[in-house]
């Protein structure tokens, strides 16, 4: 591999890792606040991508503007799911039953997308879709930069919310120890609902970013279940910083392997990393003490 090709792969890997971090952030929040394995998260990602595409088709405006509609919509849906469905599951079997429940939701969303827009592949066409810029000899697609910028801004806002706001403190306390948080006066049920809504809101942003540079179809969400689950396990269940680091490492690794092995074989990195984590360090490599609780 030449030096220029290596640099090109590293740049693309960083951009890809940033997008992966955004796509997986919601999964970490779900598990952190409710111990829920949200199989339907990737289905909501594809639904958001379809809504961004449809918004562009109907209005001719940039699909990023659809975020003003989809983010609050997904937030409300997330809060409603937590209060109307998730809380009805028995605590003793919550994690296992959440897999079955959210699997059914994923199938429902896939069918809904197919009913509304058929199974035809769709792609957002923008004036800058085919544009590239030079970065120290590396050619980078503008849409990848826009998606990475959207991911960076969203993750920065999420970090500030968790670190600087009273709600963020309550949410982190609930993630760390729900019973102790309740003892100091935090309304953990309310915080969990808002945290669930926040996780689904990240899906709205991630799906819109995905729509900028991907061909979408109703069953695409199954392609993302494995990689996103691998990222949150490697990063440490319940750890947002761990998820971000794992996403960046795996994104760069996939980009480098893609040069030698091709796209299909490079995807196996996620499953190798998942198996290695479960065998060597089940609490995750980057989650720290918080992730070890889970």
Q: What is the 3D shape?
A: globular
Give the N-terminus to C-terminus distance in angstroms: 40 Å
Poorly predicted parts: 289-294
Percentage of helical residues?
A: over 70%
Overall pLDDT confidence = 88
Biggest sheet: strands side by side, in what order?
Answer: 1-2
Topology, element by element:
Elements lengths: L2 H32 L6 H19 L7 H18 L9 H24 L14 E4 L2 E4 H23 L1 H11 L1 H6 L4 H24 L9 H15 L4 H22 L1 H4 L1 H13 L7 H5 L2
Helix pairs in contact: 1-5, 1-6, 1-8, 1-9, 1-10, 2-4, 2-8, 2-9, 3-8, 5-6, 5-8, 6-8, 9-10, 9-12
Commentary on this structure:
The protein contains 13 helices and two strands. It is mainly alpha-helical and 294 residues long. A hairpin with a 2-residue loop joins β1 and β2. Mean pLDDT is 88; it is low at 289-294.
Short characterization:
With 294 residues, the chain is mostly helical. It has helices at residues 3-34, 41-59, 67-84, 94-117, 142-164, 166-176, 178-183, 188-211, 221-235, 240-261, 263-266, 268-280, 288-292; strands at residues 132-135, 138-141.
């Amino acid at each position: 591999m030449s030096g220029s090709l290596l640099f090109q792969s590293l740049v693309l890997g960083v951009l890809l890792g940033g997008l992966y971090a955004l796509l997986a952030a919601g999964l970490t929040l779900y598990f952190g606040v409710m111990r829920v394995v949200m199989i339907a998260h990737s289905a909501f990602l594809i639904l958001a991508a379809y809504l961004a595409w449809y918004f562009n088709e109907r209005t001719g405006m940039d699909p990023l503007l659809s975020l003003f509609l989809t983010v609050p919509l997904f937030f409300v849906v997330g809060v409603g799911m937590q209060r109307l469905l998730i809380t009805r599951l028995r605590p003793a079997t919550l994690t296992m039953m959440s897999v079955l429940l959210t699997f059914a939701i994923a199938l429902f969303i896939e069918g809904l997308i197919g009913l509304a827009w058929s199974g035809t592949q769709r792609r957002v066409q923008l004036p800058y879709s085919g544009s590239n810029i030079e970065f120290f000899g590396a050619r980078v697609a503008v849409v990848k930069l826009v998606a990475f910028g959207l991911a960076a801004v969203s993750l920065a806002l999420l970090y500030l919310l968790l670190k600087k706001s009273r709600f963020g403190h309550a949410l982190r306390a609930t993630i760390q120890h729900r019973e102790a948080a309740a003892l100091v006066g935090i309304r953990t049920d309310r915080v969990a609902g808002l945290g669930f809504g926040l996780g689904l809101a990240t899906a709205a942003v991630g799906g819109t970013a995905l729509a900028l540079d991907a061909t979408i179809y109703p069953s695409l969400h199954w392609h993302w279940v494995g990689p996103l689950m691998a990222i949150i396990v490697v990063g440490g269940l319940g750890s947002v910083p761990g998820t971000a680091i794992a996403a960046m490492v795996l994104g760069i690794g996939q980009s480098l392997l893609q040069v030698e092995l091709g796209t299909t074989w490079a995807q196996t990195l996620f499953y190798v990393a998942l198996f290695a984590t479960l065998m060597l360090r089940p609490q995750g490599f980057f989650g720290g003490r918080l992730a070890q609780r889970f």
